[in-house]
Amino acid sequence: MASKTLASIILLLSLFTFSSSHPDNGGIAVYWGQDGREGDLTTTCDSGNYAIVLLAFLHKFGAGRTPEWNFAGHCDNGAMKKCTELESEIKHCQDNGIKVLLSIGGSPDYSNYSLSSAEDAKNVANYLYTNFLSGQFGPLGSVKLDGIDFDIEVTENHWDDLARELDYFRQTTGRYFYLAAAPQCPTNPIYYLGKAIATKLFDYIFVQCYNNPGCSYVSGTNALLNSWDTWVGLVASNNSLFVGLPASTSAGNGFIPAEVMNGEVLPYAKTASNYEGVMLWNRYHDVLNGYSDQILPNVIKSNLLIRLNVG
Ligand SMILES: *[C@@H]1O[C@H](CO)[C@@H](O)[C@H](O)[C@H]1NC(C)=O
Ligand SMILES: *[C@@H]1O[C@H](CO)[C@@H](O)[C@H](O)[C@H]1NC(C)=O
Fold first, then answer.
1. Cβ–ligand 2 contact at 238 (below 6 Å)
2. What total number of domains does the chain contain?
3. Mind listing the GO biological process terms from this record (predicted)?
C-alpha cells in the first residue's frame, strides 16, 4: 500500500472552489447610517475596506405600524418619506462587488418594532421583499438590496417566522439574497434571536462581542475566545460567523486593540471553518479610528492549504 504520505495530496485552493453559497474570501461588514458625520455611502464603499455594508436601520415596523427608517440625516427620515437619493450610491457599491443589506431593528431606545403573529411576519416579509429586494420602485429607489440583517433587540417572538417567510421568497423567486443576524454574544440563552438562528437560514451571523463582559474583550481574550468556540459549535456549518466589534473605544465596551486582534484573535477565529470575517459598529467610529485599515489584511481568509488523505 502506497504510504499515506505519498497518497496525500496537497492542494492549494482558494475558498470559492468548494464553498457554493459563500463564494467570497471573507471580509469586513460595517454598519452605515447611524451618524451623519460618517460620510456618504459611495465614499464608504470606495474605501475598499468593506465586503458588506449594512444600512441601519428600518426601526419601526410590524404589528400594524407604518414602517419608518432612520439613516441619521443621510436622507429624509420618517414615515414613508423618500430616501431615493441613495439609489445610485447603493448601485455603485453593488457594482463594485460590495453587498448592501438593509438592517432592521436596532436599539429599543430609538426604535419601535415587533411582530404580533406568524401572519404579521408574513406581511412584514412581503413588505421587505417588495420594497427593498424586488427591484420595484420603493423607499430607496429601484434597488435590489442583497439581503436583510436582523439586529433584533426586543422579544423572541416570530423572528423565526420572518426568516422562514423571507426564505420562501428566495426559494420561489429564483433570486438569492442573504439573511443576516446580529445577536449579542451571550449564548445561555441567546437573546431574542435564538429561535431564528435555529432555523439555520442565516448566511451571516454577526456576533456582537461587545457590551457583554462575559463574552467580550475586557482585560484579556479568554472570555471572547471561549464565546467564539461556543458560537462555532452552535450555528450550522453553512452559516458564516463574523466577530462583531466596536470600531473604537467610544463605540462600546469590548474594543480590541488592533495588535491584539491581528496577533491573537483573528488567527484563532480563522481556525473555524465557518469564519467569514469581522463586523464593525460602525462606519463613523471606523473613520475616526482607522480600525479597518489596521486589521483588514488579517481579516481576509488566505488561500487554504488543504491536505487530502486519499485511500
Ligand atoms: C410603539 O408602537 C405601538 C404599536 O403601534 C404603539 O402603540 C406605541 O405607542 C409605540 N411606542 C412608542 C414609544 O412610540
Ligand atoms: C443550511 O443548510 C440547511 C440544511 O441543513 C438548509 O436548510 C439551510 O437553508 C442552509 N442555510 C443556508 C444559509 O444556506
1. yes
2. 1
3. chitin catabolic process; polysaccharide catabolic process
* Residue 1 counted as domain residue: no
Total count of residues recorded for the chain: 311
Residue 174: partners with Cβ closer than 8 Å, 6 or more residues away: none
Q: What is the 65 CA–ligand 1 centroid distance (Å)? A: 8
Which cell numbers hold the place of 168?
A: 420562501
Look up the domain containing 71 and give its range. Answer: 28-296
Q: What is the pLDDT of residues 111-150, one digit of tens each?
A: 999 999 999 999 999 999 999 999 999 999 999 999 999 9
The answer to the question of residue 308 being in a domain is: no
pLDDT in tens, 283-296: 999 999 999 999 99
Question: Ligand 2 pocket, 201 CB below 6 A?
Answer: yes
Q: Which atom of ligand 2 is nearest to the CA of 237?
A: 1
Could you tell me the CATH number of the domain that includes residue 203?
3.20.20.80
Any ligand 1 atom below 6 A from CB of 63:
yes
Residue 236 CA, closest ligand 2 atom number: 1
Could you tell me if residue 13 is inside a domain? Answer: no
Tell me whether residue 18 is in a domain: no
